[in-house]
Amino acid sequence: MANNETANEQAIANMYAAMRSEINQLYSKITELEMEVSEHALVIGAIQPLDPSRRCYRMVGGVLVERTIREVLPAVQRNREGLQEVIARLNEALERKKREVAEFEAKYKIKIKRGPDGNEAKDEGETREGSAQGVLVGPAGGGQEP
Questions:
Q1: Are 49 and 10 in contact (CB under 8 A)?
Q2: Is residue 64 part of a domain?
Q3: Number of folded domains that form the chain
Q4: 121 touches 114 (CB < 8 A)
Q5: Backbone φ and ψ of 138, nearest 5°
Q6: Rounded Cα distance, 77 and 93, in Å
């Protein structure tokens, strides 16, 4: 019977890991799309004040095509709005998945060990990946002090 309980615990752990992985994938996709939205906003900000008859170029299916700002600006704005809608749907899915994980944790009495910094504690044998995130780097060639 102990072997059956171990197998059951392993199945629960695998399901939990898969759910956590889905949450991480949703976070990654949302972040990626938010970066695209900000790029669209930069393009809109750059071309909006220009003459609508001015020539500009747009990448369409891997091909660079010549258009006017009058043609491109509405398309870029529609793309940005579409991306924002997708982000909103992904955020809703993320919230549903978070609730699902919380219910799963409560049902199976899963406790996550937290470190002193509030993040999940790592086992001693595990290496800590991503510890270099958030590093600021100065401008290129800026290694010399004035």
A1: no
A2: yes
A3: 1
A4: yes
A5: -75, 175
A6: 25
Question: What are 72-128's pLDDT values in tens digits?
Answer: 999 999 999 999 999 999 999 999 999 999 999 999 888 887 777 767 654 433 333
Decide: 134 and 119 in contact? Cβ < 8 Å.
no
The one-letter amino acid at 44: I
> pLDDT digit string (tens) for 20-78?
999 999 999 999 999 999 999 999 999 999 999 999 999 989 999 999 999 999 999 99
What tokens does 80 get?
């940005």
What are the helix (H) ranges across 48-68? none
Question: Is residue 113, in this structure, part of any structural domain at all?
Answer: no
The first and second tokens of residue 48, run together, are: 């909006």
Instruction: Give me the domain span that covers residue 53.
Output: 2-107
Give me the CATH number covering residue 95. 1.10.287.370
User: Could you tell me how many residues make up the chain?
Assistant: 146
The answer to whether residue 44 is domain-embedded is yes
Per DSSP, 23 falls in state H
